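In these records, each integer encodes one residue's backbone shape. Here is one protein:

___
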Amino acid sequence: MKLAIVRSRYNPFGGAERFIERALAPLAASGLAITLVTRAWRSGGEAPYELLICNPPYLGRLSRDVGFARCVRARTAAGFDLVQSHERIPGCSIYRAGDGVHASWLASRARVDGWLARIAIRFSPWHRYVLATEARLFRDPALRRVVCNAHMVADDIRRRFGVPADKLTVIYNAVDGEHFHPGLRVEHRARVRAELAVPTSSPVAILVGSGFRRKGVGTLLRAAASVPELGVWIVGADRRMRCYRRLAEGLGLTSRVRFLGARADVRPYLAAADLFALPTLYDPMPNAALEAMACGLPVLTTPGSGAAELIADGANGYVLDALDVGAWSDRLRALSAPGVAASMEPAARAAVAGLDPQTMAAHWLTLYRQLLPGGSG
């Protein structure tokens, strides 16, 4: 079977990229001949796929996306049994909606955008292109299956675009339980806390993710301001980092907040923290939340996060409105009490126990076989 997987560009901290890297090895081991179609990519070690570069010249992101889509369609028109796109490109046979629905993201960010920003988005050529392309993608007769990483995304696509339920498949992201596990605390906790000058007994909430407005860093900082015993670690990057540092300073959090930047390996920081907080506006299935649960951390997140589907309130975390600072303060305070977060470790770990890369690859192989000639899909 010849499979083309389309992803525009490699980002070492990106969720879609980590999905691809985790999925391709077991898929290739099953006999698939995989070609990764991309503008640019890098991978450590021997990659289980061939690279096909589509990177025509461009001026600006609209020109970039239009040119890449045209190149992909031209280069994958023949020679592949299935074309699986992780980008909004009409004409693919499988679309993985890992980024969710653009219209839903815009509706979510409108909760925090000012009126000027909302007007700018409304008349933005790029946003208009993405919205129109997304609608064409779901109407394209070549599209045989949409794979969503959360039920909330599948329900949204069905509701907004009328895609029938039998064309929607939910396959959760994978997390490697041998790579992320509670035993990492023994290896990393004391060392990381010593390096960051954080007492071993002090409760710490960690947020992992870049793009701080979407991830809800502002909500987390404001909520933590009224929980004086709580430390906050932010692992990720943002162009407006100085603004968030000033916010932390203005809230009196300078001594309790650590902005750690983007990290290729987040395990030491998850191992040294006590709970994971993600007040995200919109996040179809954040890998960082799955990794935190695999490490035994309770997760606080929002209804706009696919990870909410794995949360049992009070057992392995809580689901809270992204902008309800008071509710976030209450839950952070409760989980900061001695022993409370630690008591949720078994339930947090159990919630992601079945989301290993091999199981995910098996779900994908089943789907491919259904869609090939003679299959049932």
DSSP finds 16 helices and 13 strands in the chain. The chain has two domains: 2-174+356-371, 184-351. The first strand starts at residue 2 and ends at 6.
